[in-house]
Amino acid sequence: MYRAFVASAVSLAILALAGCSRGAPGGAQGEPPAPVAKEDTRPMLNVAVVEVKDASAPPVATTEPPPPAPPSLAGKTILHVGDSMVGGLGGLTKALEERFEKEGAKLVRDYKVSESIVTFDKSKKLSGLLKKHNPDIVIITLGANDSLVPFPKVMAPNVESIVKRLEGRECYWIGPPMWKPDTGIVSVIRDHASPCAFYDSSPLKLQRGDDGIHPTNQGGADWADEFWKFFRKSETERVAASEPAGPLTGH
């Protein structure tokens, strides 16, 4: 009787253990497998990142380098040659002389009344002046007596000949300050004076003497002021400022 009871108890225990084993974690063979994540094949969007600046922030100052200072004129000799516009009634040379002296330079002038481009080219005056003074800079003021000739283009070789005689010196050709429309000499000088820098004086409204042609001392001073602005620019600025000089009203 006792043995039968023990056998029954053992059988019940085995059955109980078997039931527990089916619910244990290790016996989860019947559970469905976990889903496998699929690769996202959708195209990615390129999103630009835009920096939003603070509107209240002060603007950043952009500073450009200042233009280079004009070269020193100290100790240099400047030769100014030409027609009566250099001397005469006007004060062009007088005003220029004062400016050059303030810069420590020396101005030498030489002019001839009624001098034309052709007569100046054919004379030996320029060669003699260059040999005597050996100038660093040459300023030429010619063309006023050629302003009404009918065929000014024939003087192009003379302009080139005068410039060539300067042998590479720094040079400036001041065109005539026209009192009436010219027949084309201003354009001829402009087109053939290179490598000299050409200054167009034709638009200037200057105070003139009784003859209505030559500037007075005040007119010459105004003329000198306008040329000096051009003269003290850098070479690049002079090329850029190729337009004629702005008009002045006479005093």
Automatic annotation (TrEMBL):
Signal peptide residues on this chain, from the entry's feature table: 1-18
Keyword Protein biosynthesis carried by entry: no
InterPro entries reported for this sequence: DUF459 (IPR007407), SGNH_hydro_sf (IPR036514)
GO molecular function: hydrolase activity, acting on ester bonds
Keywords: Signal
Name assigned to this protein: SGNH hydrolase-type esterase domain-containing protein
Species: Labilithrix luteola
